[in-house]
Amino acid sequence: MPTPVRFEPMLTSEAAAMRHFERSRKGYVRDEVEALRARVVVALTLTERGQAEGVPLGADDLIEVELGFGRGGYDHREVDRFIDEAAAVLRRRGVLRAGGAEPEASAISTDGLGRTFGGYDTDEVDGFVESVIKAIDLWEEGVRPDLTAGEVDRRTFGTRRRGYDHDSVEALVSRAMRVLDEFETANPLPDDPEDQAEPA
After folding, report:
1. d(Cα 73, Cα 26) in Å, to the nearest integer?
2. pLDDT tens readout for residues 116-171
């Protein structure tokens, strides 16, 4: 029987502000880490509120951060783990660079979806993502697809022994629904003349 995998909850702005780093004989310069932590807290706070504008850093910015190394600094393994956790949250929210989010359409993919025991069926989710991407492509070509935001909102998935993490998939479905809803709102269906006809 396989050993169950423990999945930690996503990092929140409050948890980031309270994260404790052990000191090491030689580690990351503390002032630099604290400055980075402050920016992470702001980024997480804004994205928790659904805001993208003004985010001081994104997932890719975090991964590229270079911190100084010196005596009496913070344990580099703990700080690296913190950076990875924060980057994973921002990536899930579609925020890759400072200043705002990538277009949500570009965030419709299974990249970064975690797996867990009893998660959503991977084949079903993969098929769903393909259908959403196809619908977005049609909209961008000026063609109204059959798939609607309402249908996306009602979409359900089966489970399997090891599938995609539920929270990650639900966030993906929400993004897909918002993207399709924006297209539909900008391109309303014309009124049907028969609906407007006076009854005989």
Report:
1. 6
2. 888 899 999 999 999 999 998 888 788 889 999 999 989 999 998 888 888 888 88
94-120 confidence digits (pLDDT tens): 888 887 555 555 567 777 677 888 889
Sketch the domain layout of the chain as residue ranges. Answer: 13-92, 104-186
DSSP state string for the chain: -PPPPP-PPPP-HHHHHH----EEEEEE-HHHHHHHHHHHHHHHHHHHTT--TT-S--HHHHHT----EEET-E-HHHHHHHHHHHHHHHHHTT--BTTBPPPGGGG-SSTT--EEET-B-HHHHHHHHHHHHHHHHHHHTT---S--HHHHHT----B-SEEE-HHHHHHHHHHHHHHHHHHHHHSPPPPPHHHHSPP-
Prediction pTM value: 0.50
